[in-house]
Write a structure and sequence with these properties.
The longest helix has 16 residues, at 14-29. The chain is built from four helices and 13 strands. The chain has helices at 14-29, 33-37, 52-65, 259-262; strands spanning 40-46, 70-81, 84-101, 104-123, 126-144, 151-154, 158-159, 164-171, 177-187, 200-201, 207-213, 221-234, 240-256. The protein is mainly beta and 264 residues long. The chain has two domains: 1-137, Nuclear Transport Factor 2, Chain: A; 149-264, S-adenosyl-L-methionine-dependent methyltransferases (Single Sheet), CATH 2.20.130. The protein is elongated.
Length: 264
């Protein structure tokens, strides 16, 4: 029996659910997969359609890619209805990363933010996480000098299947810099399938837009902007050196579904 089982001896409602979320954050911080698994019901399904096994494969993949990732959370609200409950939670994640470009190691950082709802149900008188629904989610992965550049990717939080929508990338470029970027759309699946990047030079207004046609399958989507940053250096009166200064990725979530599904 897990060491935390004593907190479930008495059903104290909101307090018990807060303790589950506290343990969830503790186990995630320590990359304790066994402990984390014990907090989820066997029939767990995320809003993206991931069952428990695939959901935890994604977690393991994240831990392998970002070995020092740390998590934080803030509970916004808890509602209990009989044997089920919902908790609105704001979550953040931070990590460092490295990228090899032209034989050089470029250091970077990951920052992720999300607002979501965890659903709970009682299993053998214990509150377990039975589902997850993300209202919004955004991640910034910045390498090199892009860490010091203001940039953002904005997409609608929700759209209907088959509906057109626009994703907009904005950058505030420093002097003597040049940016190329692409914006792609991928359905959220496991394993993840990614689109091929088609880079464009940033327009004079430093805004890049792309229109997408939401899939008709009702699968949630990620919009991903890939940004390359170059710097110019004056060598002499006739020559200018152009070199790679950084790379960045911004990802936003677009929930796809009918209006009644989105408001549940």
């Amino acid at each position: 029996m897990p060491a935390h089982a004593d907190i479930f001896k008495k059903d104290d409602g909101t307090k018990a659910i807060k303790q589950v979320l506290q343990l969830q954050n503790k186990y995630a911080e320590k990359h304790n997969l066994k402990g984390l698994l014990s907090l989820y019901s066997p029939d767990f399904v995320s809003d993206d359609g991931f069952k428990k096994d695939d959901y935890f494969k994604l977690i393991e993949d994240t831990w392998k890619s970002y070995t020092d990732i740390s998590y934080n959370y803030e509970i916004k609200d808890i509602k209990i209805t009989g044997e089920t409950a919902q908790a609105q939670v704001y979550e953040t994640a931070l990590a460092t990363a490295t990228q090899i470009e032209d034989g050089l190691t470029i250091y970077g950082e990951l920052k992720s933010y999300s607002n979501g709802i965890y659903t709970f149900k009682k299993v053998n008188n214990k509150w377990l996480i039975s589902g997850e629904k993300l209202k919004d989610e955004k991640s910034f992965l910045k390498y090199g000098d892009t860490r010091f550049v203001e940039m953002d990717l904005k997409s609608p939080e929700k759209v209907k299947p088959g509906e057109y929508y626009t994703s907009t990338l904005t950058i505030e470029p420093p002097e003597n810099t040049m940016f190329v970027a692409s914006i792609n759309r991928d359905k959220i699946t496991y394993p993840q399938e990614t689109s091929e990047d088609v880079f464009r030079k940033l327009p004079q207004d430093n805004i890049l837009e792309r229109m997408f046609y939401a899939n008709k399958d009702g699968k949630n989507e990620y919009n991903v902007a890939t940004i390359g940053m170059s710097k110019t250096e004056q060598i002499d009166e006739n020559r200018i050196k152009l070199y790679m200064a950084g790379l960045a990725f911004i990802m936003t979530r677009v929930n796809v579904g009918e209006e009644d599904e989105q408001n549940q």
